[in-house]
Each structure stands twice: as C-alpha cells, then as structure tokens.
## 1
Amino acid sequence: MTEIATVAAADLGASSGRVMLARVGRDLLDLSELHRFGNEPVRVGGTLHWDVLALYRGVLDGLRAAGRAAPGGLDGIGIDSWAVDYGLLDATGALIGNPVGYRDERTEGVMARVHAQLDPARLYAVTGLQNLPFNTIYQLVAARGTPAAAAAHRMLLMPDLLAYWLTGEQGAELTNASTTGLLDATTGDWSTELITALDLDRDLFAPVRQPGERIGTLRPDVAETTGLKPSVPVLAVGSHDTASAVVGVPADGDRFAYISCGTWSLVGLELPAPVLTEAGRQAGFTNEAGVDGTVRYLRNVMGLWLVQESLRVWSAQGRPDDLAALLDEAARQPAFVSVVDPDDPVFLPPGDMPARIADFCRRTGQPAPASPAALVRCIVESLALAHARTVRRARELADRDVEAVHLVGGGARNELLCQLTADACGLPVVAGPVEATALGNALVQARAIGAIDGSLADLRGLLRRHTPTRRYLPSTDPGPAAWTGLQARLYR
C-alpha cells in the first residue's frame, strides 16, 4: 500500500487545458499547477475542429514537467475533459481527421430527424439524457455517410482518445460515455436497442470502464518523450470533467446541490439512482453517471461562456477586457435592468455575444445594456437566476431536500456571481475549491493506488480539511420576491 500518492491530473476544458501535480495521503492533499495551454477550436472548410494534436502535445509537456517536479516518480496519471466530442480511428488505430467541436453547425436539424425515428420519451427512458443538439448520438447521425464514418472502426471520446495514445489501450470510461445519449442509464452499458435502431456499428463502441480502473502503462515512445518510467499507470477517473468536479465538492452529507461553474454551469444533485420521469425529460434534466455508482442529476446552463465570448469580442475591438475590473463595476450597476435566458440557442455558437445579448433584450422589451459593465451585470444576474431555477426544479423532481449549494470551478472566484446565486436560491452558497475537477481526478487516482481508502464521503472529508472555501449567505435586499418577479418576467 502506497502511503502517499504522487499523481498527475490532466484536466482539459473547452477553452484551456492544464496538468496538475497532486500529492495525496490520509492527511495530505496538495495540488499545484505545472503546465497550462490553450484550447481554441479551428474552423477549416466551414467545419469547427478541435486541434487535438496540440492538446496531446500540451499533455505530454505537462507530464514532462510532472516528472521533473516529482523526482521520486509518478504513481499515476488521470485525464478528464469536456463531454460528447470524439475521434474516429481506422482499422490500424490511426485517427481519421481532427475531432469536430460540439459547437459546429453540422448537427442543426439532426435532433428532429432522430426524434422522428425514435420517440424522445423512449430515448429518455433508456438513457435519461437531456436532449441537447450536440450530444454524441446526434453528432454520429450527422456524420453518417461521410468518408470518415465509412472508414471508422472505433469511436473514442476525448479523454479516452488521449489515454489510448498514452497506453495503446482502447476503452470508454463510464461517466463520459453516459453523456453520449447511447448508454443505458440502468445497465451502465451501451444500448444495443438504440445503436441498432440508428443503424450504427456496434463495434464503434469500446468496452465501458469504471472510474478507478487501471487502463494501462505508458507506451515506450511516450515514456521516452516525457522522461517518465514506462511502468507509470494511466488510471480511469471520472473522465467527464463534471464527474471529477462533483467528487471535488467538499460537502458534508447528501443534502446539497452543486454548480460546477466554468464555460458551462452544470447544476444539479448527486443521487443514488436515475430519475427517468417524463416530468424530468420535459424539464430538460439529465442523468449522467458519477463515481461510485452515483448519478449526476443535472441540467446544463450555458454558463460563463457568455462572459468569455464577450471578453473575446471586446479584446478584438481594442476595448478593455479586464474581467476583475468589469465585475467590480458591474457590482455597482443597478439591479434587474435586463436579463436574458442563457440557454437560448442564439448564445451557443461563437460570435458577437454583446450584440446577441443586446438584441435579445430589445426583442423581449428590455433596455439593451449600455456599457460593458452593464452587460456583465446582465449576464451574471441571468446566470444566478438560471442557477436558482434549476436548483429549485431539481429538488422538486427528485424529491430531495437541499440545505446548501456548493459552487466549484472557475466561477467560485466570481464574488458577484456567488452572492447573487445565494440571493436567488435563498440558500447558502459555499464557493470553492476552484480546482475541484483536478482534485476529484487526483482523489480517485489516489484511492485506486491505495494511498487513501473509503467512500465519497471520506474523500470529501479530506477535501474539507485541506481546501479553503467561502460561504455566501442570502441577502434580504432585494429579497426573494424580487427574484421571483424577475423569473416570471424572463420565463413567462
């Protein structure tokens, strides 16, 4: 049994990736960032691709840095990433082109075509998945008939693809596979019914792995490139970044809601079993697999993508794009002037987000934000409102009491968002850790290696002892009635 595990956690988000080094023991939890790299999609021939080779190079560079920072060697490597996107391999195991990004337009209209063939209620009864136009099921149908699809022998989701390049072993980690719309939520395996109905090749789908399983050891060429020992194991973690982030929620007990807040806000509850009701389907809730047999009962909210795209546009225009300064100014703006629905499809693709928000406000009879600070205030209030609406609906649908909301990820740094979320929910918001995803990744590795043991509750106890958080209490000004009125105005 290893007393202290030294592991590398590769955490890939939709806008950046990083490799973190963690040292984990029964009374030790230390995390440091070693290497950060960008992740910007590239449009080629009208299609939006991920530069997956650049991402892989970033992971290799990070692992090389991890080897230098851990002279005693690494005990494990784990990879998590965003969901739904994949690479296709040919019969030799070679990648067939760069993966297409989920914001690409190729899936427009595909969901309606699939639903004309498969009853949406039946899809939900099997998968428990929120119907989003970019889910893997719709991407695969959109690609059907293309030369790439004709040559494909295996589909690997993004973290599984990178793990394959590190080890030579193919598989499909459960938590990410559960986001595809093709995994049976009850059995935890690929749905033969759906794959057959859509005329997809069953061999495309790799065997399902559980979080904590050993995938393999480093290929000799990878060991040489990184300077690591070939015996270093690559371990399956909660490879959907939200699954790792939920492991990294420092909750005490089970009466909590979580918001994993970054480019997306994943808002929901941790449950022992899926909720496959028609009411849940109509409300857009999804049942995704978590670590240790748990279910992430959640709804996707567009998240800080609206802020990120606005900052990108302002930067290109040569205008100030200092988020900290904008948030300070936004906190002094008048409340409840204008709000938007973050989940309106108009906000999904890249583009001129400030112009889209202004147009939404005008279309709904509200003033368009008059300044960048006013627009940031509009976005943050809109997100807080969406968070509260989603938490309340999850509680109703799952019949689960909630005493606190844990907000983790990059959004935990956003004091205005945390306070307004507490106000809108009428519940305490516990903010942090910012690095919940990397911490959850590292904890699952450390337990698999044997440096720690116990349940998710035990892992979270270690988190509470070693990670700082900040508690935001709901304010009485303007009070719950004002938020209720705001919601009625937006979602009427």
## 2
Amino acid sequence: MSARPAIELADLKSFVCVVETGSIAQAASRQGVAKSIISRRINRLECVLGATLLVRAPRGTSPTDIGREYYLQAAEGVAQLEQAQEAVGKAVGEVSGPIRVSIPLGIGETFFAPLLADFAKEHPKIQIDLCFEDRADVVAGGFDLAVQAGNLRDSSLITRKLTKVRTVIVASPDYLDMRGRPIDPVDLAEHDVVVDSNCTSQWTLIGTSGCEQVRVNTRLRTNNKHMLLAAARAGVGIVAIPHFMACSLIDSGEIEIVLPDYTHEEVGIHLLVPPSRVKIARVRALMDYLSGNLSVAV
C-alpha cells in the first residue's frame, strides 16, 4: 500500500488564504502569485486529502462543511508554524513579515495613521497592509488585526479596549433656527436625526439627574462619519458625531452643540484579533504599540 503524498505547506497556506479572503483572486493578490497557481495548489491539496474543500462560484469561493472544519485546524497550524519561524527570527534579529490591518476611516486618519507610520519606521522588516473601513469582517477579510468602534458583535475574536471617543450632538444653526433648539432629551423626538447605521436609534444621554434614553426619528442613515458631518452642515438634521471630527466646525460656527448640558454616551475603541494570530510576534508587537500609545480618551 503506497503512502499518501505529503501536504505542501504552500498549498495549505493558499487554502487558508482563500477561505479568509473569500476568493481565489483575492488570495492570489495577497500572496503575490497568479490565480492559476492558487487554483493548482487547492486542487493538489484536495487530491491529497481526497475531499472537496471549496465550492467555487461566480460571486466567490466558500468552504464546504469538511473544508470549514479543515480550515479551523489548518489556520491554527499555519499560525503555529509562523510562531516557530518568528522564534528563530527573534534570535537573530527583528520581528518581520506581513500584517493586514483594518481601521475605521475617521479615527484611522486622525489618530492611527501617525501611529502606524511610526510603527512601520521602528519595524522596517514588517510589511503593513492597511485598509480603512468602518466595520470589517475580520476573519473573512483575512485581517491579522482590526480596530472597531462601538458595540462589538459576539464573536470568538480576542478583544482589547484601547480608549474611548467623546461624542457630541450637533446641528447647523439654520436647522435649529427653523426647528427650534432642544432643551431636554425628550425634545429630540420632534426632530429629524441622521443616524450612524453601526449604532442603534436609541441614544443614551447623561445629565445631572442621571442617564436618559430617547429613541430618535431617523431621517437619514449612513455608515460613514464624513456623511454624518456633511448632513449636519447641510441642515438635514441633528447628528451624534465624534468631537474630534466636529470641533473645527463648532469653532467656526458652521454647526453648534445641541443639549450642551448633557453628555452623549462615549464610544469604546477596541482591538480585535483572531485567536490564531494573537501569539504571532509581529501582531503582538503592533497590539502592544497601539495599546501603549492610545490609552486616553480622544
């Protein structure tokens, strides 16, 4: 009885990459090879295992039930191999290798871009692939690390709270002159509100008498903070927005703070890391760097 051929490490890595990115084309781009090479590796792996691991369709590639189970073990194995390689690397020099990162656009441009630039300068052997998007699918996107704001969905990801963001409620003076200035949270129910689609339509406001919750009427919903700010400036309605994004327009008088005696619920900023990536030295280095340099409210 002949022995089963050994599994090629490149085939295993390509399979993991296809599952994480959702397509052979994306996996090829991420690994820097042609799509035909990725397809050949997947076919070879399936032949060795004697099982179909992936379902190929025009809209993307997804794992079969067997493929999903195999991926969970394979991803862990690939991560352990990377840890072993890094253990040798640390003995002879610096941490190295690629890191794929997702960060929300607003806080990413303002706070994280300078930090990541400094981190890249300090670690010249680490290659950072940075995507600015508000709510990435960490596993499907093949991210080693992601930053997300607000309430986190239940998941198996490792999370670490970095800081919190002060939120203010604002509107244009023209809108408030026409519709009136709220003096109590319940007055918000009579106004048009532009809502972040990543948050709920129930706002929590903190005043001298404690917390008050009010459900607002949604005039416009968007997942983009810059659109929220544009809507406030245009007089579409009242908006809850991170203070750092609104402060210059508040100072210039283009928008003004609504209900200044109340504080809007602060938004937590979190790191999310797949369990298989958290022990990899370059990922840990970036986690620790961001935690150490972004530990106060922004």
